Amino acid sequence: MSRLSGFMILFVLWTASAGNSQEIGQVRKIYLDGMTSFTGRDLKKAGDNFRRIIGMSLPRNSLFDPYTAKSYYFLGEIAFIRQDYERAVDFYKTVAGLYYEEDIYPRDLYKLGRTLIISGRLNEGIAILEDYLSHYGGMDRLEDHAYYWMARAYAGKGDYFKAISFYKFILNNYMESDLTFESRNSISILENLNEKQVTNTFETNNILINITNNTENVNFEMEKAILERISRLLAIKQRLLEIKAARVDALSRLKEQNWTEQGFSK
């Protein structure tokens, strides 16, 4: 190989590397802007940034993967906050199916299971959360939340005994969890619920997982009406806790990335 040929090869490689580095810098900036908007509650602007990244057709199995995976994840978070649960499931599923080597994967798996349960797909949600607990329980300190949503799912299926066992597991093993109050109330509700008043599993799901279903035209007896209101309040409180946790997590990840980037190049 001539000296000129060797120089040309090195020049081409250097040019490609420089271009790739410049593109990564551009993607990183778009992502960080999106994170800043997300933590600032500007969901529209955040969503625009994350959609811009996933629309760039970035190469897979590359340095772009963390940004693409997290963009899908936070689009799922935005959809969840807007109570568009089916769309949230689609975004979470993309991460779970394609980006299982990224650090966001365990948390995404939990969010997928939880959102499937909220949207009424109980068996799918239970299977995902069982997978999360068996492989990643404890990594993101979300195992108590995973058990809580499994309890909600089994209650929705009419398996009150199993639901109560999960609630009691939370009380016995996660005594400092923010879900202890909800767990105690749910145990009390289930233990006092007269199953004969519930005519089918669909009505049970309306009572105990009462986040997305519209029950205005259903004539419940007094005990059912009280139960529904209690369940709705608990579900709203839980959703607010999830949203708050998502924003805190996003802010901490944003700060962590800023520190990392400042240490290398900024």
Q: Measure the end-to-end span.
A: 39 Å
- The gross shape turns out to be elongated
CATH topology: Serine Threonine Protein Phosphatase 5, Tetratricopeptide repeat
The beta-strand count equals: 0
Instruction: State the domain count.
Output: 1
CATH superfamily: Tetratricopeptide repeat domain
Summarize the structure.
By secondary structure, the protein is mainly α.
Structural description of this entry:
- This protein is mainly α and 266 residues long.
- Helix content is 76%, strand content 0%.
- It has a single domain, classed as Tetratricopeptide repeat domain (Serine Threonine Protein Phosphatase 5, Tetratricopeptide repeat).
- The chain has helices at 3-39, 43-54, 65-81, 85-98, 105-118, 122-136, 143-156, 160-173, 180-192, 201-208, 222-264.
- The longest helix has 43 residues, at 222-264.
Which descriptors apply to this entry?
disordered C terminus; Serine Threonine Protein Phosphatase 5, Tetratricopeptide repeat; mainly alpha; elongated; 266 residues
Write the layout of secondary structure elements.
Layout lengths: L2 H37 L3 H12 L10 H17 L3 H14 L6 H14 L3 H15 L6 H14 L3 H14 L6 H13 L8 H8 L13 H43 L2
